[in-house]
Amino acid sequence: MAAPAANMTINADRLWDSLMEMAKIGPGVAGGNNRQTLTDADGEGRALFQRWCEEAGCTMGLDTMGNMFARREGTDPDALPVYVGSHLDTQPTGGKYDGVLGVLGGLELIRTLNDLDIKTKHPIVVTNWTNEEGTRFAPAMLSSGVFAGVHEQDWAYAREDAEGKSFGDELVRIGWKGDEEVGARKMHAFFELHIEQGPILEAEGVDVGVVTHGQGLSWTQVTVTGKDAHTGSTPMPMRKNAGLAMARILEKVEEIALSHAPHAVGAAGHIDVYPNSRNVIPGKAVFTVDFRSPELAVIRDMEARLKAAAEEICTHMGLEVDFEKVGGFDPVDFDEGCVAAIRNAAERLGYSHRNIISGAGHDACWINRVAPTAMVMCPCVDGLSHNEAEEISKDWAKAGADVLFHAVVETAEIVE
Fold first, then answer.
1. In terms of residue numbers, what domain contains 406?
2. 320 annotated as a binding-site residue
3. At 380, is the secondary structure helix, strand, or coil?
4. pLDDT tens for each residue of 283-326
5. Is there a binding annotation on residue 98?
6. Boundary (domain end) residue, out of 269, 303, 329
7. What's the pTM value of the predicted model, to 2 decimals?
8. Residue at 101 is within a domain
9. Domain assignment present for 4
10. Keywords assigned by UniProt (predicted)?
11. How many structural domains does the chain have?
């Protein structure tokens, strides 16, 4: 396959301007974005993306999960397309770049091909996956999961938000439910550009991360049941304090994750105590433990040790404890050929690079099940993401998009 010349690079100013223009839709309260999936703001962002794609000569496809596919034709009508993309939806207090860089970096790739009058054998398709974030309709990466056969479509349609509105109804309401069967498309390869959402690349002064693996994830909801009681009149030895048990279990979560350093991580990000009153000893605590590792055996070990530690603590305190697996996926090994294309692109362009493991879940993790897949990452300031203060530099965006351009175009095969 002929690789693009090293002097072929994307238009950084145009990419940056597009990022800033998209960020005007669904503004947050602190400089970021609140463009949650299937909201009116999401619909507005989709419409802008479609307009830009059509102006670049692409035709837009839309499947029954609302996934968007902007296609630039190749010279071989029988060649499978090379796909590229990410997501436009954000956290309720999200940044301007999480997901959006991958979608608009794909669009910039198309625009650059047009500028250079380059034709490719394989079509190139820029994708916006619906509901990657999963904040409004759990779980995360919902529509790419349906596309890859991980979830049933009817189950996905039935997911409800905090107001009881269903995914399926809201998809219809905003006008972005297509007719195309989800998962019917076949891919030659899939590439995703994303911000790192961690501090490693910036701390080491590295331009791009070549993602070799994606961490596996396990979410376990733990429910500790004790007894509500008055904080002032209940003697300390007679209390059944679910909040205290939770605190002790969370110390064990930290200990368990640290025992599998450096790649394993663990935390509890969702915590509720009941009745949550100033002068009532909590009689119930519900929290979700998030364990991640690139090794499945490590995840299983952490799950087992969490259960054993929680049962020991609660038995000692005279409390009950229950566990429910509420989410998870196995570690991902990305395609060696696609990973090599990204690494070779970085070297050709003279960008510093290092192998990196993705600590977050991404649409690429599901698509890897149905097509050769890889990811490229760029740094973000202080590793901050899922936060309105999320920030990257124009140079970082350019480096990531340049590497994406070269990897995708080489895979799609330039036609002389």
1. 12-215+331-412
2. no
3. coil
4. 999 999 999 999 999 999 999 999 999 999 999 999 999 999 98
5. yes
6. 329
7. 0.90
8. yes
9. no
10. Hydrolase, Metal-binding, Zinc
11. 2
The span from the CA of 47 to the CA of 312, in Å, is 54
CB 32 within 8 A of CB 93: yes
- Give the three-class secondary structure for 29: coil
**Are residue 65 and residue 206 in the same domain, yes or no?**
yes
Same domain? For 16 and 151 the reply is yes
Dihedral angle computed from the Cα positions of residues 299, 300, 305 and 308, in that order, rounded to the nearest 10 degrees = 140
Structure-derived torsion over alpha carbons of residues 149, 153, 157, 158, reported in degrees to the nearest 10: -90
pLDDT tens-digit series, residues 365-385: 999 999 999 999 999 999 999
353 is in an annotated binding site: no
Count the Cβ atoms, other than its own, within 10 Å of residue 142: 27
Residue bearing tokens 């399926």: 168
In this structure, the answer to whether residues 198 and 262 fall within a common structural domain is no
Q: How many CA atoms lie within 13 A of 296 on its CB side?
A: 6
Half-sphere exposure (CA, 13 Å, Cβ side) for 291? 30
Residue 359 forms part of a structural domain: yes
Among 101, 111, 22, 84, which Cα is nearest to 393's?
Answer: 101
Single out the residue in 329, 362, 377 at which a domain terminates: 329
Q: Is 362 annotated as a binding residue?
A: no
